[in-house]
Amino acid sequence: MKIITIFCFFFYIFISAQEQPLPTAELNELLMVERNGRAKIESEKPAAFPSGADALKNRIVKNFRMRKIISNAETETCQISFIIDKEGSMVDVKASGSNESFNREAERAILKIKDKWIPGELNGEKVRCRFRIPLTITFDKN
Hints:
Layout lengths: L11 H6 L14 E4 L2 E4 L2 E2 L7 H11 L11 E10 L5 E8 L2 H12 L8 E3 L2 E3 L1 E10 L4
Antiparallel strand pairs: 1-2, 3-6, 4-5, 4-8, 6-7
C-alpha cells in the first residue's frame, strides 16, 4: 500500500523557494537600480495565493493522483517551477525530477488550480514573479 508523505518543506517554498524575477525578454518588467556598481531590485512584494499557503498545499494534495506514479524507489522528489503573470495567472509550469510520471502528475495537479493569484508588485506596479515548489513523495512498501 502506498502512502503519501508529500510536500515536505512545503511552507519553506514561500520563504526561500521563491526567486527574484529575472530581467529577461520574458521578465523584463523589473526595474534594476544601480548603486555603487551593483544592480539591485527595489521594494518587491512577491505574488501570493489568495487563500494562503495552506490552501495551496491542500489543493495540490487534493488534485494529486497517487495511482499515476510509477516507481520502485522509496522516495521521489521533483520541483515545480512556474510564473505568476501581471494578471495573477499561473503560466510556464514545468516540473523537473528524475521520475517522469511524478513530474507529469505534479504538473497536472498544479495546473488544475485555476484560482487567480495576487500578482507581485515592484514600486507600485504589478510584475511577473517566478515560484519554485519542491515536492517529495514517500512510498510505504508494506
